[in-house]
Amino acid sequence: MNNKKEVRVRFAPSPTGELHIGSLRTALTDFLFAKKNDGTFILRAEDTDRKRFVEGATERQLRDLAWAGVTVDEGVVLKDDKITEVGDFGPYTQSNRKEIYAKYVQQLIDEEKAYYCFCDADRLQKMREAQQAQKIAPKYDRKCLDLSKEEVEGKIQAGKDYVVRFKIPEGKTVFTDLVYGKIEVDNSTLDDLIIMKSDGFPTYHLAVVVDDYLMKISHIFRGMEWLASTPKHVLLFGAFGWTDEMPEFCHMANILNKNKKKLSKREGSVSVADFRAEGYPKEAIINFIALLGWNPKTQQEIFTMQELIEQFDTAKMNKAGGVFDLDRLAWMSKEHIKKMSVQKIYKESLPFLQQKDYYKNAPEENKTEDYITKIIAVEQDRLENFAMVGQDNQFFFKDSVKLDKELLRWKDNTDEQTKTALEKAYTILSDVSEENWTRENLEKILMDAAGDKRGDFLWPLRAALTGEKRSPSPFDCAWVIGKEKTISYISDAIATFE
Ligand code: GLU
Predict the structure, then answer these.
(1) Which of 24, 208, 252 for mutating ligand 1's site (highest number of atoms within 8 Å of CB)?
(2) Which CATH number fits domain 405-495: 2.30.33.40, 1.10.10.350, 2.40.400.10, 3.40.50.2000?
(3) What is this structure's pTM?
(4) Digit-coded pLDDT (tens) for 207-251
(5) Domain 97-252, what fold?
(6) Which atom of ligand 1 approaches the CA of 10 most closely?
(7) What does each C-alpha distance from 4 to 37, 108, 338, 418 come to in angstroms?
(8) Fewer CB within 10 A of the end CB, N or C, for the chain?
(9) Is the CB of 192 under 6 A from ligand 1?
């Protein structure tokens, strides 16, 4: 008999802004774990914090997930680019589950495991200040715990604002985290947390426990910042009598900056949208953030999504935070781009190119797919993102070359030597048919002609074709710009010596 629990994991973003790179890591971990274990990956929108609610945020988060290839099976999903919900455990948007939470809050009140609290902000503030002055950890002093039923009803009828607090039971709370191991806390250190706010919305703590139970979640992957809240959740599971159904917890170490501090917005790009806009391929971002959370324990560094799924294991997850190193992202990105077809790179980079002046101002013949894919083929091994295409070789987009003798000259060569080299290139290349005008062929012909005096022959040619001090090799440049332009640029260069 197989009594292993069905794997159901959930990613539970709050619609408070763009999808953070750390949230993508959480979602990716859920996704990898679900795929690896034939499980279901659920998305639940945790929108109970109405003050921080940002219109359209869930939609944008879902788009970024879809872009990254982290596809959601159940819950809040995008269908034809519109938000909808699929699955039998809905609604999956917490603001549509208010009655469900109210029922469970009432249950705890009836069982005297929770109580109404009418203390106003002013009183709580003074209480906290007094506690701080006495150097004791701030904690609700339970003033409202012993209000009688009549007192409570009287206050509610009088229209007084209230919250509902969970009464932390005495004793110890113990649970096991898949990364951090056995965690034990003394309940006396825990505050009687609010489970229902004065606006009638549940707090995160109540909603997350009720939903993870009702949605039959088997494993919870989330950021380290929630580890301190987990004992409260464990107690809530217990208070409801759901301890046997409690999911496994797996907290993930923070993503750190180079100074080993938690990565924050002030340091530049931290949202998936930012990295997308900078032209990083999703393959690289996925590879990069996956390895910020776990270590494959082999030499392999470049992974496809499929390989990540195969190799993912909670036992490989790191306790220490991974450092967000942009140079490493750029390197991974380069490695992934190297493996792509030029057609794919073309498709991905075109939107970026279309924003660039050197592309916008280029003659039509330098904007064709055929022409651009040649540039890409030449640049491919150096590209760190899709926004870089053409950037270092803008001469490819012009229809003339600016020439001067000094640029054409190799070291101390005379005018005569330079001109002779150019004439030789002219003769050789004029003889190459259009059909043989291939990258490999041009390299072979020109390298043979250069012999061991490479600079003397190849430098003037390269300068003649590009007008630049730095560029790809003359064979690559000749190949990209084509025979006709190559010949005409060489003769222009020769003319500067006449
Ligand atoms: N809504 C919480 C967040 O945005 C989810 C935390 C959890 O996964 O329990 O971080």
Answers:
(1) 208
(2) 1.10.10.350
(3) 0.93
(4) 999 999 999 999 999 999 999 999 999 999 999 999 999 999 999
(5) Rossmann fold (3.40.50)
(6) 8
(7) 11, 30, 42, 78
(8) N
(9) no
